[in-house]
Amino acid sequence: MKTIVGTRFGNIDYDPEKTLLFPEGLIGFGQLREFVVMPQSKPGPLFWIQSVEEPALAFVLTDPTGFFLDYSVAPDAAERRKLGIGEQDECLALAVVTVPPDRQITLNLAAPILFAPQTNRALQVILEKTPWQTRTPLPAA
Question: What one-character-per-residue DSSP string does 48-81 give?
């Protein structure tokens, strides 16, 4: 076990074998490659990933299909290679969640995170020619 000191969650003990690996980092944070998926304290669609390399950085993610039924992203062959998965292996598309001061939550659907549970690897990709936006508001309830 290792410990990340001084995060928004306090000190975090984690197993380095179980970190979420971003081989190319996140957009704007290319140097950050390893994250810990934080246990959910409340049931719901949101969860946190905490940077191993930078304790001050954590991101909220969600499965956007719970809010947008028609949202679908599949990795291409090059992305599958980077994720270490085959054509038939599971790959989830996740969205980074932003909660601004006005509490109008948005999802980044133009640059989803492709997550391969089998390899615990993830890539953030930029969708081209998409109707989705980087700050897509949640649909009205």
Answer: EEEESS-TT-EEEEE-GGGT-TT------HHHHH
3-state secondary structure of 17: helix
Q: Is the pTM of this model over 0.90?
A: yes
- 42-75 pLDDT, tens digit per residue, is 888 999 999 999 999 999 999 999 999 999 999 9
Residue 3's H or E segment, with its range, is strand 2-7
Q: Do 13 and 7 form a contact (C-beta atoms < 8 A)? A: no
Strand partners, 50: 36, 58
- Count of other CB atoms within 10 angstroms of residue 10: 8
Give the containing element (helix H, strand E) for 82.
Answer: helix 77-83
Please provide the CATH number assigned to the domain covering 2-137. 2.30.290.10
Sign of the CA dihedral 50, 127, 92, 84? negative
